[in-house]
């Protein structure tokens, strides 16, 4: 079942997002493009994983910057996390939200937790994960967590949390 945050998104927007959630790994660039959000890989200060800010060149637009020095799977989660802020917290982003390596920002801990849960739903949709669990079983995969992590382009830690193994 998807987190409450998923259900809080406008139904029309959920339908648009669902078009991108059909096969792993989920294309975050396609999601960002459908939302009108630019994603840029940048060198960010030490300890900063990502940020979302209004785009000064596009009215009502936003830019996500992700730390290009972070591992690729970390970058994927960061982009999903920042897109979740866009989807859930656009009205409180103000001049921008910068998230440190623990996904803490000037927003409340509750909003950061919401962004983490929605990021997980975007990267690892429950129904799709369940489908691939069954495939892993039929393939007799030796390490299903590693198999699923590779398939979805997420860390094993993130996949363990998704599978309730944390």
- Overall mean pLDDT stands at 88
CATH class of the largest domain: Mainly Alpha
Instruction: Give the termini distance in whole angstroms.
Output: 17 Å
Gyration radius over CA: 16 Å
Which fold does the CATH topology of the largest domain refer to?
Arc Repressor Mutant, subunit A
- Shape field: globular
What's the total helix number?
Answer: 8
- Poorly predicted spans: none
Q: List the helices and strands in order.
A: HHHEEEHEHHHH
Largest sheet entry: 4 strands, mixed
Could you give the count of β-strands?
Answer: 4
Features:
Arc Repressor Mutant, subunit A; 4-stranded mixed sheet; 50% helix; single chain; alpha+beta
Structural overview:
The protein is α+β, with helices and mostly antiparallel strands and about 170 residues long. The chain has two domains: about 5-125, Arc Repressor Mutant, subunit A (Orthogonal Bundle); about 125-165, no CATH class. It contains eight helices and four strands. The chain has helices at about 5-10, 10-20, 30-35, 70-90, 110-125, 125-140, 145-150, 155-160; strands at about 35-40, 50-55, 60-65, 95-100. Strands 1-3-2-4 form a four-stranded mixed beta sheet. About 35% of the residues are buried.
Question: TL;DR?
Answer:
The chain has 166 residues and is of the alpha+beta class.
Topology at a glance:
Blueprint: H1 4-8, H2 11-18, H3 28-35, E1 37-42, E2 48-54, E3 62-67, H4 72-89, E4 97-100, H5 109-123, H6 126-138, H7 144-152, H8 156-162
Parallel strand pairs: 1-3
Antiparallel strand pairs: 2-3, 2-4
Helix pairs in contact: 4-5, 6-7, 7-8
């Amino acid at each position: 079942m998807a987190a409450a945050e998923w259900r809080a998104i406008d139904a029309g927007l959920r339908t648009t997002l669902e078009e991108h959630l059909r096969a792993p790994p989920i294309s975050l660039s396609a999601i960002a493009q459908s939302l009108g959000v630019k994603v840029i890989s940048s060198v960010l200060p030490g300890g900063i994983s990502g940020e979302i800010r209004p785009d000064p060149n596009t009215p009502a637009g936003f830019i996500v910057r992700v730390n290009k020095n972070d591992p690729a799977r970390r970058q994927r989660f960061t982009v999903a996390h920042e897109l979740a802020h866009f989807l859930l917290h656009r009205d409180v982003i103000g001049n921008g939200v910068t998230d440190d390596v623990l996904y803490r920002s000037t927003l409340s801990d509750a909003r950061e937790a919401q962004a983490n849960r929605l990021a997980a739903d975007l990267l690892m949709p429950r129904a799709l994960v369940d489908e691939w669990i069954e495939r892993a079983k039929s393939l007799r995969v030796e390490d299903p967590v590693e198999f699923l992590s590779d398939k979805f382009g997420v860390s094993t830690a993130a996949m363990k949390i998704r599978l309730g193994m944390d």
